[in-house]
Design a protein that fits this description.
- The protein is of the alpha/beta class and 213 residues long.
- The protein folds into 2 domains: 11-144, Rossmann fold; 159-211, no CATH class.
- The protein has helices spanning 19-30, 42-52, 63-72, 93-98, 147-168, 170-176, 178-181, 194-200, 207-211; strands at residues 11-15, 34-39, 57-60, 75-78, 104-107, 128-131, 134-137, 186-187, 190-191.
- The strands form 2 sheets. Strands 3-2-1-4-5-7-6 form a 7-stranded mixed sheet, with helices on both faces. It has a two-stranded antiparallel sheet with strand order 8-9.
- Helix 5 (147-168) crosses helix 6 (170-176).
- It is elongated.
Length: 213
């Protein structure tokens, strides 16, 4: 990834600068790769610039920018997330045909349909497939590859919410904590997540309105 004297490092293109993209960039930068992160949020790009400095390249994400950088990439990591909705197909089959032979694509968004047009879900026992000489890694539930670590991390992140639900009951816990409330998708037949409602064609009902019925 980092190359050797006289040989260029690998070019790693990360699409999406959220949690997945930031951690992917952290690992790739640490390995000495030439790392580029594409995102449509100027705030996100600014945060990455502040965090990584000149060791990371940031690009405002457009169709042209995605095409240009993906075709030059040795590794493409798809970390695009739209909460409650299917991931957009940002890398097309035509892009894949024009990529470098032997390039690798990692679709972390596969749990929400994937952000590469050529992606389909794979498993840890059979993790990769090849299309147009490009290796695809599209394992659903990637944290399952490190089950002990990922379980402890998930417990650390969710325990406070679980205790609040147990101690207060769901209505009071969700009323007190807007972040916990944002995780409510369905309540008594109402769709309380806007993205899910829009994606499936249902009426959206605010969580507080539904819980107050």
């Amino acid at each position: 990834m980092g190359g050797v004297p006289g040989v260029d490092p690998a070019k790693v293109v990360v699409i999406g600068g959220g949690v997945v993209g930031t951690h992917a960039a952290h690992i790739a930068v640490g390995m000495g790769a030439d790392v580029w992160v594409l995102d449509r949020s100027n705030e996100t790009l600014g945060r990455l610039w502040t965090q990584f400095g000149r060791s990371l390249n940031t690009v405002y994400s457009t169709r042209d920018a995605i095409e240009r950088h993906v075709l030059e990439a040795d590794v493409v990591i798809g970390g695009v997330l739209i909460p409650g909705a299917a991931a957009p197909k940002l890398v097309t089959a035509e892009h894949v045909k024009a990529m470098k032979p032997g390039a690798v694509m990692v679709d972390v968004a596969i749990d929400q349909g994937g952000c590469f047009e050529t992606s389909h879900a794979t498993t840890h026992s059979d993790p990769t497939f090849v299309i147009d000489d490009v290796v695809h890694y599209c394992v659903a539930n990637m944290p399952g590859g490190v089950p002990r670590t990922s379980t402890f991390a998930l417990n650390n992140a969710t325990l406070a919410g679980a205790l609040a639900l147990a101690d207060k009951g769901y209505k009071q816990a969700l009323t007190d904590d807007p972040h916990l409330r944002n995780g409510l998708n369905v309540h008594r037949g109402d769709i309380t997540c806007r993205e899910v409602a829009e994606d499936l064609g249902y009426e959206f009902v605010e969580a507080m309105v539904s819980m107050g019925k």
